[in-house]
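Q: Convert this sequence to structure tokens.
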Amino acid sequence: QVRLVESGGGLAQSGSSLRLSCTISRSIFIGKILGWYRQTPGKQRELVATISVGENTVYADSAKGRFTISRENAKNAVYLQMNNLKPEDTAVYFCYGELVRAGEIRSKTYWGQGTQVTVLP
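A:
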């Protein structure tokens, strides 16, 4: 009934930038916590950044100073601005959402399908 739709992935050169977007498909759901995780073959999925309703943010050490997470509630969207990209940023990036349905108090976790980011040396 609700899904997280990602866009913005692609191919980039080292030192360049990409901006990932994720949209909650139904406006009656609010992202209590929204964020981005990434995963490469043979590795466990890892946190990149999260942002709360109150716009408190958490970043992985690898993302600090280079990536910025933000949200635009009017568009039910969360973004990840990735600057100064490095080859080690290459991964499938997954949108994460701890979503609360309007009028309810319990949340549920949702994942996007993933978008590929490839950074060339």
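The chain has no helices and eleven strands.
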